Amino acid sequence: MALLYKSLSRRVLLTSAAMKRRITTDARQILMSPSLTSIDFPDIWTSSSCSDYSSITKSYDDQQTATVIDGRAIAEEITSGITSEVRRMKNATGNVPGLAVIMVGQRRDSQIYVRNKIAACEEAGIMSEISNLPEDCTEDQVLNALSRFHEDPSIHGILVQLPLPQHLDESKILNSVHLEKDVDGFHPLNMGNLAMRGREPLFLPCTPKGCVELLIRSGVEITGKRAVVIGRSNIVGLPTSLLLQRHHATVSIVHAFTRNPEQIAREADIVVAAAGVPNLVRGSWLKPGAIVIDVGINPVEDPSCEFGYRLIGDVCYEEASRVASAITPVPGGVGPVTVAMLLLNTLESAKRAHNFT
């Protein structure tokens, strides 16, 4: 971690120097503070020493003290309710919810997510359609796919699988998704309404919504608790922190520039790990009895597995399960519930479109 802080400190110093140059060279600038987008540095994490994945075994299972939060079981319960509502809607109106997915490139983790979403749609009776675009596609190709789905009345939800290749303007594309079909909940108006008290977003982002549902269904009291969200992506970290605040938790965010992240994380009653770094969060990052929600889903090479890789989380499960009071596994934790939330958002969108209650 010392090397990480040294590297980050150097980057911050260089950035400060660049900001000073901007201030002295632009006489028209009234404020010393820069534009926010000019300081939107990428979070580059260094994985913990728990990175020799092949050496991590289940040898600690007999010492595990944490209750496993079974995301698959919870997702099945939610999906069962969705399936019943889809059937009721079809019988009453002749319509079923429709979900469109735009997939750019061949990222392995994205393929996993999309495969799971399409399978879940089929199980729930929701119609689905995929637009597969090449890695080097143009922005216009993505926008054209969006336009086609916007005009299709059988499509009630549109999902642009993130992340997109770097040559594409992610903000422009997400802003182009019509609000009433933004079942991912990433439209600025949805995010803004999530951030503001007294406002209700049309859709909540699926992973944060799933994280909170896991906590509530596991009997975890959120109000008044200290929560730490590790990672601040627009997809998970940021909206999760906002949603936890709406549930009256006291929230801190840990990111790649945070000093003493372990110390901050150890103060939390609830830890949500969403950095996208395998085994970043060690047992030493947790206080005894903490609740751990592991959003990470990281494929690591493993020739012994069916597809040549296995999935691990952002939390070093074998260590954390001996410290925490409850923890989500990877796979089988947050992932299935996230997919269930996507189905629910799509169902709610279809109900609005057809005035069905």
UniProtKB/TrEMBL annotation:
Domain Tetrahydrofolate dehydrogenase/cyclohydrolase catalytic positions: 69-184
Pathway it works in: One-carbon metabolism; tetrahydrofolate interconversion
UniProt-listed InterPro entries: Aminoacid_DH-like_N_sf (IPR046346), NAD(P)-bd_dom_sf (IPR036291), THF_DH/CycHdrlase (IPR000672), THF_DH/CycHdrlase_cat_dom (IPR020630), THF_DH/CycHdrlase_NAD-bd_dom (IPR020631)
Cellular component GO terms held in the UniProt record: cytosol
Entry keyword annotation includes Cytoplasm: no
Every Tetrahydrofolate dehydrogenase/cyclohydrolase NAD(P)-binding domain range: 205-353
Protein keywords: Hydrolase, Multifunctional enzyme, NADP, One-carbon metabolism, Oxidoreductase, Photorespiration
Protein purpose: Catalyzes the oxidation of 5,10-methylenetetrahydrofolate to 5,10-methenyltetrahydrofolate and then the hydrolysis of 5,10-methenyltetrahydrofolate to 10-formyltetrahydrofolate.
Quaternary structure, from the entry: Homodimer.
Protein's UniProt name: Methenyltetrahydrofolate cyclohydrolase
